[in-house]
Amino acid sequence: MTSKMAYSYTLLRYVHDVLTGEFVNVGVVLFVPSTGVVKFKTRATIGRLKGIFPDIDRSAFVSSMYAIRRALQRIAKSEANAGFLKTEGDAVSIGNKAVPADYSSFQWSSSGSGLTSHAEETVDRLYERFVSRYDTHSRNRRTDDDVWRPVRQMLEERNLAQRLQEKSIRGGLDDIIFKHAWKNGQWHVYESLSFDLADADGIKSKAREWLGHLSAVVAGGEAERFKPHFIVGAPSNVALNEAYRTALAILETAPNSPEIFEETELDSLVSKIENEVRAHDLEL
What we know:
This protein is an alpha+beta fold. It contains eight helices and ten strands.
């Protein structure tokens, strides 16, 4: 029987007007103090906020959310390696390291708590409950995990899923954590991206964000050698296909010449992985 661990969580609130105190939840951070595990999930796009706050600055919001996610990613990695020096306190203590309590447009809620045997599933459930449950059509849009799911199933069928592991690629200015990677001379890293979003700006912003990720990592030439692969999901709204094609063109300009696979090309992708893994094993 899997043991359960105590955790705490806090919600990230976007406060549009500090004077009136109107806010919308835009993220959640979960902290398991006994193990130093930090999990988080935040909005990557403006979503329903435009309907609630018509005068919101889209560019400023997306840029701020990007900075917050990067800060939380660094904190999560630091806590995982902290040992006896890990943070004493609750999820709010973790959140304040990324966004200090200074009455800005982004603020943390008071802490909640519970027990979990799987932190990642718990943070997903908290996000659904407190952040995305009121999104218009949110249940009909595919997530990054939805795009990866058939890839994982195909890898499992070929007994390859266990060969992929989480890998942090550290560069001169920044680092990226890829959930799926394996090494054959250089690291082959795989990232699923759903562009099944609400509008054209969100689709292109997501691609620009990943262009920025890769550019920051390779800056200075200090990163390990790695080859990025993107598995992309198209928008369900065909009116957004032009923006989707623009997003793919943006990804193609990223450093290290990423390979891009659409959902109709999954068999080709998995066969490529299988052939490379088998050839690597034979060499060994």
